[in-house]
Design a protein that fits this description.
Layout lengths: L1 H33 L5 H32 L8 H30 L1 H30 L1
Helix pairs in contact: 1-2, 1-4, 2-3, 3-4
């Protein structure tokens, strides 16, 4: 029963996290390409999506740890897909939180200068999350 609601929050958090990363990537790529001077709405969206994506990443991390514990593989050999999900997914989440909390202040203060870097980094993280999802879903299907 607990694993069912944890799985729901895990998958919901993953969808919100990946979706917000892709949304920000598109916003910053558009900003870099078109050099919008009206950045008030963009700054508001960036701050909001940063908060939402950071909370979603923490939810994914916490529920992922709970789900792995619920599987009962403590002290046993784990299958490859579970190692990739546990170690690869955990590293991607922690790096995402650290890098984007560190760099988001610059992007909020100077959105035009940080737009290219931010869009590229979000693309890399979206690709990394999708890679972990591919490995895990190949086993779960």
């Amino acid at each position: 029963m607990i694993a069912n609601w944890m799985l729901f929050f895990h998958l919901s958090g993953l969808a919100v996290w990946l979706g917000s990363a892709v949304l920000l990537m598109i916003l910053f790529a558009y900003l870099k390409k078109n050099s919008l001077q009206e950045s008030g709405l963009l700054l508001f969206c960036t701050r909001l999506v940063n908060r939402v994506s950071s909370v979603a990443a923490v939810v994914v991390l916490a529920t992922g740890v709970g789900l792995i514990e619920a599987l009962g593989y403590r002290g046993m050999d784990k299958p490859l897909w579970l190692n990739v999900m546990e170690q690869g997914g955990g590293v991607v989440i922690l790096l995402f939180i650290l890098v984007f909390l560190w760099k988001s202040r610059r992007a909020n203060k100077q959105p035009f200068q940080a737009a290219g870097w931010y869009a590229g980094a979000l693309g890399v993280f979206a690709l990394a999350v999708s890679s972990v999802l591919f490995v895990v879903s190949a086993k779960l299907v």
